[in-house]
């Protein structure tokens, strides 16, 4: 009999990708994925440790699931609870101590061993349940947070579950940069690139199953240096090769580091039409002093030069970034430099956060911590500026015709939702069967977080396939 599996994913897109792979690998044990947590046999929380708030959310969710487990136990039914991802990696055994009803804890490097771990947890849970007269909720206590020598990617199941119009493809994991504030090098480990042949094979499989857009993922994706016949390939070379896959209409990548933007990558932005003109290139701060304290290994001028090179190659490139306010030692003057840089670049979209001390990272240990109220003030000021830039960018899209990859139907009847080249969500009316297709949409209104418009053609039967290689479409978005 099939069992129901619910995975709740926190944090970055890498976790979204990992959750999908976990789903794939548990099919062999009879687990079917469901989208709501009601009446399920197993819950996996795929967690994020990047900021304190993200970690807190996990423990409060665990409290809720515990009550669910108690209710099921009262009916004699088990509920297996697993904690995966970066909180699992960072806290390991501590989770089982704090939340003894958890059955399984496993880190991001061990999910290829998941079927084996789940089987072990299932077995132990049954034994404990029996020992408690069938009503116990004590967890199985299986913990695996190794950094194994073998690559988890070697064990990916051939089949990928539901394929979608836009899919993630993980090509790189971990980070060797050790920014002062960041837990990633500790939770995801040393930098690792998947071999080129493996990436290409997975990309071809995805495209064959209907995926039109791939987002290449990595914590430091442009540090990619995948093994290939005749030597290592960088990201630019990989993108060129991916662009040869027939039916792959769009390529994106995230997250990148300014120091790893090499000439080959810049050239890919110039030469590969499938590479979308939108780039998330985090800078974190505009102050040279803070950038140095953050161990970012570049200054503001170097970041701006990278952007100039990219814009020269692809003049319509839109940019996004991450910012941290209140890093230890950040003064008013430093913060003003961040605002200045934001004004100089002009972002289409950006994420900004208050600095959150992470145990074990260098910045957490200094006594130069910035007052919480000051952080809040700075965040508000920065977000006002970024929101205004985003709104202006969206408003400037009005009147343009954008090729939109339709991802799903919208909440309103007859409405479709997709993404334009610059990652903006675009809503427009049209029939369901356009999901997965690229449709030209004339943008009629630009809002804070989305655009709305009308498909250029009213003749659905002849909806043109607007691929990026279509010269007509090149003109349309120009
Ligand atoms: N505090 C606040 N923000 C952080 N980020 C990473 N670590 C921290 C931290 N300790 C942000 C950075 C990074 C993004 C994914 O999260 O801006 O680019
Ligand atoms: Fe973290 Fe990115 Fe810095 Fe690596 S480059 S330490 S992932 S912020």
From TrEMBL:
Entry GO MF terms: 4 iron, 4 sulfur cluster binding; metal ion binding; tRNA-2-methylthio-N(6)-dimethylallyladenosine(37) synthase activity
Top-level division of the source organism's lineage: Bacteria
Localization per record: Cytoplasm
Residues annotated to bind [4Fe-4S] cluster 2: 175, 179, 182
Cellular component, GO annotation: cytosol
SMART domains: Elp3 (SM00729)
Domain Radical SAM core, chain residue ranges per copy: 161-392
Ranges for region Disordered: 458-478
Coarse class of the protein's main subcellular location: cytoplasm
CDD domains: Radical_SAM
Annotated binding of [4Fe-4S] cluster 1, by residue: 12, 48, 86
Cofactor comment text: Binds 2 [4Fe-4S] clusters. One cluster is coordinated with 3 cysteines and an exchangeable S-adenosyl-L-methionine.
Domain MTTase N-terminal: 3-123
InterPro entries (UniProt xref): Elp3/MiaA/NifB-like_rSAM, Methylthiotransferase, Methylthiotransferase_CS, Methylthiotransferase_N, Methylthiotransferase_N_sf, MiaB_methiolase, rSAM, rSAM_horseshoe
Compositional bias (Basic and acidic residues): 463-478
Keyword presence, S-adenosyl-L-methionine: yes
Reaction catalyzed: N(6)-dimethylallyladenosine(37) in tRNA + (sulfur carrier)-SH + AH2 + 2 S-adenosyl-L-methionine = 2-methylsulfanyl-N(6)-dimethylallyladenosine(37) in tRNA + (sulfur carrier)-H + 5'-deoxyadenosine + L-methionine + A + S-adenosyl-L-homocysteine + 2 H(+)
Listed cofactors: [4Fe-4S] cluster
Residues annotated as domain TRAM: 395-457
Quaternary data: Monomer.
Protein function: Catalyzes the methylthiolation of N6-(dimethylallyl)adenosine (i(6)A), leading to the formation of 2-methylthio-N6-(dimethylallyl)adenosine (ms(2)i(6)A) at position 37 in tRNAs that read codons beginning with uridine.
Family: Belongs to the methylthiotransferase family. MiaB subfamily.
Protein name: tRNA-2-methylthio-N(6)-dimethylallyladenosine synthase
Native organism: Nisaea acidiphila
Record lineage: Bacteria, Pseudomonadati, Pseudomonadota, Alphaproteobacteria, Rhodospirillales
Gene: miaB
